[in-house]
Amino acid sequence: MARVVKLLSYPVKGCAGMSAHTAVLTPAGLAHDRGFMVISEEGVFRSQRRHPRLALIRPGIGADGQRLTLRAPDADPVVIGVDASGPLRAVELFGAPFRGVDQGDAAAAWLSGVLGTPSRLVRVPDDHERVTDGRTPGTSGYADSCAVHVLSRATLDLLNERLNERGAPPLPMNRFRPNIVVDGWNTPHTEDRAHRITIGDTELGYAKLAIRCAVTMVDQRSGAKAGPEPLRTLATYRRAAEGGVAFGTKYAVLRPGRLSVGDEVHVTSWGQSEL
User: Fold this and answer.
1) Cis peptide before 228 (omega within 30 of 0)
2) How many Cβ atoms sit within 10 Å of the Cβ of residue 236?
3) What distance in Å separates the CA atoms of residue 117 and residue 114, rounded to the nearest whole number?
4) Where are the beta strands (DSSP E) in 94-186?
5) pTM of the model
6) Given the DSSP bridges, would you call strands 148-152 and 180-183 parallel, antiparallel or unpaired?
7) Is 147 helix (H, G, I), strand (E, B) or coil?
8) For 232-257, what is each residue's pLDDT tens digit?
9) What phi, psi does 54 have (nearest 5°)?
10) Which of the residues 35, 204, 234, 236 has the least number of beta carbons within 10 Å of its own beta carbon?
């Protein structure tokens, strides 16, 4: 039986994740996932693609979402009283216009120091409206696209076998920044075909394959680019028709609720892989 073995949320887009034994799944994904975003002074989002040091920032946020703590090596932690209702400013994510609540000068100064470039922090406004794409539409905060990213251990195991054949070291799961890690699917890439899933009180609907980018080449512990893997090896067997390479699957939330590590993963509808 397939089970959840890890739950991860990423409160600040592009920064390190938080693991939890039990989590609340909202229509926009795990609670607080990508609820904050680092931006330039012009409002453009910052990503590990250009700012790999984001990986060194470890956010922490309570269940009530009222305080956000940011930690990083060689920097004193900063605690931010979250502003959920302040003035809105225009922000840009992959060229699309959104809005955000600026979290103030203390957060901006801390992030600018850690990243070495002027930066600010914004929060998703309460009236945030976003419709994500894919086979099952949904919503999300500041995620790249859909609300939930699922990846199985078997899928990573196959990649690491392929890396070993090429003389490359294995990669950890955190290179791929999933929300839900599943064990017990013996066939790699089973998540490609799992088109409707129930876990605990929740239900997920398949949206699309996860097309991978240069963030997968960033060592999440050092905050430094360590390419060309895994993209070089994935290109030998996971090329997507629309371009790029696919690894893992994106889902929309059909039924919010609670889910926990150890919960069984039930596939209630199977489909063909799009790869």
Assistant:
1) yes
2) 11
3) 8
4) 96-102, 120-123, 148-152, 180-183
5) 0.97
6) parallel
7) coil
8) 999 999 999 889 999 999 999 999 99
9) -55, -30
10) 236
Distance CA 25, CA 211 (A): 23
Distance CA 269, CA 271 (A): 7
**Residue 4: how many other CB atoms lie within 10 Å:** 22
Whole-angstrom distance, CA of residue 155 vs CA of residue 237? 12
CA-based angle 193:253:262, to the nearest 5? 70
Q: Residue 82 and residue 132: Cα distance in Å, rounded?
A: 26
The residues with which 98 forms a beta bridge, in sequence order, are: 91
Identify the pLDDT of residue 102: 98
Do the beta carbons of residue 20 and residue 9 sit within 8 Å?
yes
Which pLDDT score, from 0 to 100, does residue 227 have? 84
> pLDDT tens for residues 87-125?
999 999 999 999 999 999 999 999 999 999 999 999 999
Q: Verify cis geometry, omega within 30 degrees of 0, for the bond prior to 230.
A: yes
* pLDDT computed for residue 226 by the predictor: 87
What's the alpha-carbon Rg for the chain, to the nearest Å?
18
Nearest-5° angle of CA 259, CA 261, CA 262? Answer: 105
